[in-house]
Specification:
277 residues; alpha/beta; Rossmann fold; globular
Length: 277
């Protein structure tokens, strides 16, 4: 019953662990990762929960989106169709980094299909118009990928995602392995979506509880940036803010046990500013 099964439903590949109906949780990975990165977290979550980790369009064996420069709403629409195919109604959605942009857009546009959100190390997006040339900080990601190739690109970038990487070589290795699975075309689409993303704007449209969690040592989406998201959210919805001590951007991979505790707290609800670890 608790086996993690790979499935392909329509254009989306995903991994699912069946539960007994207590909670349904959907896990959305970030720009340099994939569904399998959630394995350690899934092992920490209650066995009664139904858990679904998708590979976003263009990742794993999921088909890419048709438009060259998609926006968060395009990924959200793909997620909505995916929910319909696997008969999900209103699960809790966990979005990490770029996945937080997708989760927030989804909840803003389809509020009836989500019960709660947990935004982990949320990427806020660069609020760029698609009528402009790609911003330098976004173009640099693409240039680096094309110059180095996927494997060396992953080795170069993954070390920044783990706090104190010299002390955690196994975690760095796991993060690197998952980043090596990216497809260049899917990654480039995701970079463009990140560039046009507007999480803070979408957050103002939310109607469900939306909690935020970040590692204190995150240098990609810093605690200050995540707190900014929380401050925006709490003006319109219930929002809890949690920091995991000594953890970097790869938050659920570096500290799956405490991340699981925070997700369980979101499921059980409550209002608290907390620090764990």
């Amino acid at each position: 019953m608790n086996t993690l099964n790979r499935q392909k439903t329509g254009p989306i590949e995903h991994y699912e662990r069946q539960g007994q109906g207590d909670y349904e949780v959907v896990l959305l990975h970030g720009i340099g990762s994939n569904a399998l990165s959630f394995k350690s977290l899934i092992d920490e979550l209650p066995k009664s929960w139904r858990l679904i980790a998708w590979n976003a369009p263009g990742y794993g064996n999921s088909e890419p989106l048709k438009n060259d420069w998609p926006v968060a709403k395009d990924y959200a629409f793909a997620l909505k169709n995916f929910f319909k195919k696997i008969q999900l109604k209103s699960p809790i959605i966990v979005g990490h980094s770029l996945g937080a942009l997708i989760a927030t857009s989804f909840a803003a546009n389809y509020p009836e299909h989500v019960s709660k959100l947990l935004l982990a190390s949320p990427a806020l997006g660069y609020s760029q118009s698609r009528n402009e040339s790609l911003l330098p900080k976004a173009q640099e990601r693409i240039d680096e990928l094309e110059l180095l190739g996927v494997k060396d690109f992953a080795k170069t970038r993954s070390i920044r995602l783990v706090a104190n990487p010299d002390k955690h070589p196994k975690i760095v290795s796991k993060v690197t392995t998952e980043m090596m699975r990216i497809n260049a075309a899917g990654y480039i689409q995701a970079v463009k979506m990140l560039s046009s993303g507007e999480l803070l704007k979408d957050a103002l449209k939310l109607k469900c509880q939306t909690d935020v969690i970040v590692g204190t040592e995150d240098v990609i989406t810093t605690p200050e940036s995540s707190l900014k998201a929380h401050e925006s959210l709490k003006s319109v919805v219930l929002s809890n803010f949690t920091e995991l001590q000594g953890v970097g951007h790869a938050i659920y991979q570096q500290d799956p046990k405490n991340f699981a505790k925070s997700l369980i707290a979101t499921a059980m609800s409550g209002t608290l500013l907390t620090s764990i670890g």
